[in-house]
Amino acid sequence: MVPSEENQLVPKEDMFWNCRQSIFAEMKKKFSQVERAAEEPRVLCIIQDTTNSKTVNERVTINLPASTPLKKLFEDVALKVGYVNGTFDLMWGNGDNVIDTQTPLDQNSDKTILDAGFEPGKKNFLHLTDKDGEQPHLMLESSSATDDSAQDRFIGPLPREGSVGCSSDYVSQSYSYSSVLSKSETAPGCSFSACTQEVHPPLPGSPPASGDSCGREAQLCLAGYVGLVNQAMTCYLNSLLQTLFMTPEFRNALYKWEFEESEEDPVTSIPYQLQRLFVLLQTSKKRAIETTDVTRSFGWDSSEAWQQHDVQELCRVMFDALEQKWKQTEQADLINQLYQGKLKDYVRCLECGYEGWRIDTYLDIPLVIRPYGSSQAFASVEEALHAFIQPEILDGPNQYFCERCKKKCDARKGLRFLHFPYLLTLQLKRFDFDYTTMHRIKLNDRMTFPEELDMSVFIDVEDESPQTESCTDSGAENEGSCHSDQMSNDFSNDDGVDEGICLESNSAAERISKAGSEKSSLLYELFSVMVHSGSAAGGHYYACIKSFSDDQWYSFNDQHVSKITQEDIKKTYGGSSGSRGYYSSAFASSTNAYMLIYRLKDPTRNAKFLEANEYPEHIKQLVQKERELEEQEKRQREIERNTCKIKLFCMHPTKQIMMENKLEVHKDRTLKEAVEIAYKLMDLEEAVPLDCCRLVKYDEFHDYLERSYEGEEDTPMGLLLGGVKSTYMFDLLLETRRPDQIFQCYKPGEVMVKVHVVDLKTESVAPPISVRAYLNQTVSEFKQLISKATNLPAETMRVVLERCYNDLRLLNVSSKTLKAEGFFRSNKVFIESSESSDRHVAYTESHLWKLLDRHANTIRLYVSLPEQSPGPQFRRTVYQKSSGDSGNLDEACERVKGPVGNRKSVEAILEESTEKLKSLSLRQQQEGNNGDSSKSTEASDFENIESPLNEIDSSASAENRELENQIQISDPENLQSEERSDSDVNNDRSTSSVDSDILSSSHSSDTLCNVDNAPLPLANGLDSHSITSSRRSKANQGKKETWDTAEEDSGTDSEYDESGKSRGEAQYMYFKAEPYAADEGSGEGQKWLMVHVDKRITLSAFKQHLEPFVGVPSPHFKVFRVYASNQEFESVRLNETLSSFSDDNKITIRLGRALKKGEYRVKVYQLLVNEPEPCKFLLDAVFAKGMTVRQSKEELLPQLREQCGLDLTIDRFRLRKKTWKNPGTVFLDYHIYEEDINISSNWEVFLEILDGAEKMKSMSQLAVLSRRWRPSEMKLDSFQEVVLESSSVEELKEKLSEISGIPLENIEFAKGRGTFPCDISILEIHQDLDWNPKVSTLNVWPLYICDDGAVIFYRDKTEELMELTDEQRNELMKKESSRLQKTGHRVTYSPRKEKALKIYLDGAPNKDLTQD
Question: Could you read off the pLDDT of 911-950 as tens digits, one per residue?
């Protein structure tokens, strides 16, 4: 150290001391900051990201000092969630401290979060939302520019499943986003995703982004490459559209085409809609664009979105459509110039060298993955291409007939490529057919493909030998026509546009020279891989595309666009580790390449995307138009985001009905303006003035007015409603008043009480009066409040609170508060204030309780009576006995409301009439006083019954006979009842004429609930005309039945219990009926009753109460419940109550005997095997357990005669199983229902009329329906039944030979397919059916004929098929198509077919109905 420097040194002790002092000072400063921070209150912020459906459930928690500025809050949130600061807004959430949920916080404000309204010590909820309608920009992660292999990370919204190129997850301690690698086992289907953080390079011509540098780059990521929305199953379409969009030559040519609106509708113009889509993909700021306009131009409806198609098929069909649309334009030959190649299909004689050939064009080259019958797949695309052009030798039986040699010779047959297109499309044929399982399969074998493909090794430079002759088609066999089924249908031989080898060249040297020059320039680069993930049954498509702007690969997976690497491309090769033989692909990755598109590397032809200044004028206008539309949509979205949508109710002041609507009002509109909008919305202009209306806060569920808004007429609705929300926990009510009234003030915290005044004298309950009270009021104070509202004395007032159904609580403790008594937001009370002695009776025994109990359980039903009910005449007959004058329906109703004694005599006559109709012999067998004693016993069950019941005299008998004649409609067999025994009558299972259009079910969907059946001893003073009971008793003594009806689970219940006593007899239930004028449209002349009934009444008792109005006994009519859809279901459980019914339910009464236990209603259809409609409904019948088939046939005979006009004998028809429209097992006469034949409710059965005696005698026999096919006449004969003694094929052939006269050795047969009658086009039957199956019995595969009713087609194998001209075939095709469409049997026999992919050039698919 030099001396001069030594003077500048600081002694070690001083240096150490200074350092120590500075450290202490810094520590002191830090400690003071910590102390201040500890003393300063903290603010807990919970932020919810609402910009993305995947992150809406994520929460970010930040704990900040209260002095933190707002702009620092935004910076911290941006850092936490990975968004660029300034590209998102923060708004208040749903916390308790919410002031305005729709005004964003000022991100540039220096105001502290405490001053901004944040509350320390509480949770402060914030919503992270879009800014100005745009999604937040993703923050870019800094990475090394030199490390190209550094894998990218996802920062921002959750990426979609199956995204390619995502290698790691971004995880924050409190804000986590997961990324999903592109796995080899990608599930088929479509999902959603978001963009990654990589900067996608802007497409040429993209509009410049605005904002700061980081935000601009993030915006380019979104606006540079935009995804496409998957409509449902349109991933195949999205993949192809993105590939075309990323093809510079195609996009530039499309932009140069100009749409003429005067010549075509823009909606149906496919090129124009593609133009619009490409412009949106290039300029839109959205994450994904809808493709509905494009598919609409294809002529597709919404159902097409649910059809999955092949991307290669779509490519061909769409190119054909574009060529049609571009005719006579500059782009007319664009598809051929870009995608069309040529090859030669040749056959060369190996003896003389003569070659026959033809030129075919192609748009893509189909490459086989695995040769037929081989278990080893081709390893690469190059290997498959060599196999494609590998010739085969035609020898042996396959020898070729040489035109020059004039004989069959060995020949070489193959394909030669003559010209490769500029854009080379290779289809990897991964879908195959497995002939072992007879199913389509997908081959997932590994097949590599290079990034650069040299096609020069596949071009044909062979010098044609002198003896070779060119021809368009000189004997080349059909299968050698260059895979014509896989190639384009364009067989043009115009070589003028051929850029490859010119076959007409006169100079071989010149030809070889051209070929050589082309070979040297046939290097192709891969730029698109369309990937399929899934199986042959379905899956998902996405595209991996290389951008020619930056040579970067991207994954276009519907909505999601992301960067990928070359390694990700290699994952699409397919394959698996190890070899598993033929089915190795079944264990391989299901995600693999399906279509490859290469572009020729030619600097003179390789185009770049048009720059914005190079756009044609019409494209510039289109860009401007789309920008304006997008801005308009953005403004509309902004309005929607600031519009409050809430339910609005209003009680119409004149109609007195509650109306409901949705109020949509901008958050900045005032309450006064909102009232005007609601006033017009509810259409009250003619009902009430505007100044007599106001909006109040309302709770529909509790029917509770929460509060009114006095003095807040100028307050914005956003503040009143607590901001704009998707749903509100309350509603609004537009309240009205009369001009002379004033509005009541509703304060928060009050409860609504609906007060019903009860009058014990008139036994009425008045409509409610609304009173508002406080929960802390006592019962005594509440009575004073009600007293003022009702002008009733509070001293004698009894208050009953209905807390819930059937919970009536007397409020008798004056000091208790309403809250303690169970009051809530909305309450219902009944009050009674009189001096009656009922006040001193125990509450549960009081008249008040009984009246309220009846009121709580009474429902109002509307009952539709039968249109042709014999009721009026029946009632006139009945009531003449009791009152001496005739009556109509109104009079009958009044009679029901008459004295109990009179009603008893009426019912006595009704009972006698019913008994007579069932069996007149029963009365003869019993002692003379039997009826009297039974009725006397019955009379003892009721009070105030004075009418004598022993009135069985001649006049009664005469009236009974008259009644018998009146109700014969419901039971025609009663005409013969005088000569039949009691058991005969009881066993009469015939049913009445029933409307065939009703839906009857013994298992009704209106599941009735059991309630306590204990009698309710109501006082006589309640309403003597309304309190009725079941009085009918039935003498079941001596009753005999030939089958058991005691089935417990049959779905029906007997109307009577085991002792013969009515189930409803001991119940005293409220019932009141009166005529009702139904609305128009309910049926002309139809009679209605409005019935008030206690819903604890059983269905059996309810039916008995309806007897006087229906006019027939309850067992002879049925009750159907009518649902909202006007569907009717029969209620048959007689011992269950009406508890499942509610006010204003509708009931339909239909005539017909009701079901008993063990009985089932059966629909009988006639089987007409040779009619166009083989299934015809006849009637409804009733079958019972234990009944034989012959007994059911006996009961059907009179009904068939009277209702259907079919006069049959019992041996001339059969019953057989019906399964939809298929005839099945033939039921033999001795079969018993429920033992041999399973029967259920709503059962259906076929009735088949026989031409002769029944041939089916045993269950071992088999009845099949045969039909002869005559190919020489192109027609089918009628059906003939063949009864076989066994399942032998030989016996079947013998029977067919016997009925047709065809020699046994010439019989061929096939089983019909589908549902009866197994219709099939006569153009298809000869080839499509499986004729002459190699089986010896009918009950094995592939026939499986094990039951009666199978359809067998047969023919004479020596009969030649008729040759048809084209005109005859077309005419026959039209007739068959029309016939099969009418019968509805066109495709019923086969599984669901794949719908053909079609593009309709006129946008009208209905014009192409003849095509399948």
Answer: 444 444 344 333 444 444 444 433 333 333 333 333 333 3
Write out the E strands in 206-296.
227-228, 288-289
422-452 pLDDT tens trace: 999 999 999 988 877 778 889 999 999 999 9
Q: Calculate helix-pair angle for 1099-1110, 871-883, nearest 10 degrees.
A: 90
Out of 141-155, 217-231, 244-258, 1220-1234, least confident range: 141-155
Question: What SS3 state is found at 536?
Answer: coil
1200, 1194 contact by CB (below 8 A): no
Integer Cα distance of 1067 and 1093 in angstroms: 13
Which of the four pLDDT bands, split at 50, 70 and 90, describes residue 875?
very low
Q: Does 1317 sit behind a cis peptide bond, omega within 30 degrees of 0 on the bond before it?
A: yes
CA-CA distance, 1395 to 309, in Å (whole number)?
Answer: 8
The neighbouring-strand residues paired with 360 are 343
Pairing status of strand 407-409 against strand 411-419: unpaired
CA atoms within a 13 Å half-sphere pointing along the CA-CB vector of 1304 = 8
Residue 531 CA to residue 428 CA, distance in Å, equals: 10
What are the residues whose beta carbons fall under 8 Å from the beta carbon of 1049, sequence distance 6 or more? none
Give the strand pairing for 826-833 and 750-759: parallel
Question: How far apart, in whole angstroms, are the C-alpha atoms of residue 1300 and residue 1305?
Answer: 13
Residue given tokens 């993930």 in the structure block? 533
Distance CA 419, CA 842 (A): 107
pLDDT at 504: 38
In this structure, how many other beta carbons lie within 10 angstroms of the beta carbon of residue 708?
Answer: 19
Question: CA 165 to CA 542: how far, in whole Å?
Answer: 13
Rounded-to-integer distance, Cα 1354 and Cα 467, Å: 55
Tokens (6 digits) for 73: 């809050």
Sign for the pseudo-dihedral over CA of 1075, 1077, 1079, 1081: positive
Kindly give, in sequence order, each residue whose CB lies less than 8 Å from that of residue 1226, ignoring residues fewer than 6 positions away.
Answer: 1214, 1216, 1217, 1256, 1263, 1348
Q: What is the pTM of this model?
A: 0.50
Strands 731-736 and 643-651: parallel
The Cβ-side half-sphere exposure at 1007, using a 13 Å CA radius, reads: 0
Omega before 366 cis (within 30°)? Answer: no
Alpha-carbon distance of 1239 to 646, in angstroms, equals 53
Quote the CA–CA distance of 887 and 885 in Å, as a whole number: 7
R_g over Cα of the chain: 45
Instruction: Show the CA angle centred on residue 925, arms to residues 920 and 931, nearest 5°.
Output: 75
Amino acid, single-letter form, for residue 582: Y
| Element holding 634 (H helix, E strand) | helix 617-641
**What CA–CA distance (Å, rounded) separates 1371 from 1364?**
10
**In angstroms, rounded to a whole number, what is the distance separating the alpha carbons of residues 210 and 679?**
45
Scored b (16 or more CB within 10 A) or e, 577-611 reads: eeeeeeebbeebbbbbbbbbbbbbeeeeeeeebbe
Classify residue 1188 by its DSSP letter.
B
Report whether pLDDT(616) > 80: yes
Residues labelled as active-site residues? 235, 540
State the Cα–Cα distance between residues 1347 and 1264, nearest whole angstrom: 8
Cα separation values, 20 from 28, 32, 34, 796, Å: 12, 18, 21, 92
Distance between CA 295 and CA 312 in Å, rounded?
17
Q: Which DSSP symbol is given to 1395?
A: P
Antiparallel, parallel or unpaired: β 523-535 and 452-454: antiparallel
Count Cα neighbours of 303 within 13 Å in the Cβ-side half-sphere: 4
Q: Which positions ≥6 away from 751 have C-beta within 8 Å?
A: 704, 772, 773, 774, 775, 818, 823, 824, 825, 826, 827
